[in-house]
């Protein structure tokens, strides 16, 4: 089996390519345009399977032979920073929409299978608990809007062409990888705390719950999908835990006791508290082993010699 991973050097991709547990995997095409210059994600790759790096834009015509040579496409390439996407609407349109459309068109043409990561940010629901049957989607950023658009595109292609795909609404990803960034809640808070900076929290978000996904669970989900052929044109919430910002900060405080909190304004008014239910994924056979405390501890350990004294040895 050969696979193609777009956005392969990012937070998820850089962990995935070091933890591929796919039966009979022979070749992995790594596609990344290096816009974020994460060259380090290519260091010390495993000896097997065979990795082939392509410095390509996902809109490039050169994507065709890469996808043709792959059995499964894991489409991680996207603009993922929700708040900054407000200032990058055109770029979000180009990358997240047009890019997906090109990849999906090629997957359809060559009859390949596709994994599409969406986000629980599509909900923004007033309901306390939301699942995949929720019809009142309230995206509050161009990023979340682009993911809903992508879901609809794949569902349409599935009906019209028989495209085999699966959609994962991941909770906010947390956990260490060599290609990680620090614009999402848990990772951002850790970076601020370990550097002695105040943790910046949106004023109304402190007590509100949101869904989160351990990076290890994200990687395990992708491996399981390919090994068990879970390309059923369905949407699955992939969520390890639902936590409030307050609960997350309390865990970080165990290891960085002197942290401070600064409340700030945000242009994203996603001020509703909700839990995302992962029952459908559990029934499909997905398993969760992620742990917020363990993940935070591990990330802090990676940063412990940067600046700030922590309680981790």
Describe the structure.
This protein is an alpha/beta fold. The strands form four sheets. Strands 3-2-1-4-5-7-11 form a seven-stranded parallel beta sheet, sandwiched between helices. A three-stranded mixed beta sheet has the order 8-10-12. The chain has a two-stranded parallel sheet with strand order 6-14. The protein has two domains: 2-174 and 211-238, Rossmann fold; 185-209 and 242-274 and 289-303, UDP-galactose 4-epimerase, domain 1 (Alpha-Beta Complex). The mean pLDDT is 91. α5 (185-194) packs across α9 (292-303). It is built from nine helices and 14 strands. β1 (2-6), α1 (11-16) and β2 (27-32) form a beta-alpha-beta unit. The radius of gyration is 19 Å and the shape is globular.
CATH topology of the largest domain, which one? Rossmann fold
SSE string, helices as H and strands as E: EHEEHEHEEHEEHEEHEEHEEHH
Topology, number of strands: 14
Inertia-based shape: globular
What integer is the average pLDDT? 91
Radius of gyration: 19 Å
Q: What structural class do you assign from the helix and strand content?
A: alpha/beta
Kindly report how far apart the N and C termini lie. Answer: 42 Å
Strand order of the largest sheet: 3-2-1-4-5-7-11
**Portion in beta strands:** 15-25%
Query: Oligomer, anyone?
Result: single chain
- What is the percent of helical residues? 25-40%
Q: Can you summarize the main beta sheet?
A: 7 strands, parallel
Give unreliable regions as ranges. none
What name goes with the CATH superfamily of the largest domain? NAD(P)-binding Rossmann-like Domain
What is the count of structural domains? 2
Question: Quick one: CATH class of the largest domain?
Answer: Alpha Beta
Number of alpha- plus pi-helical segments: 9
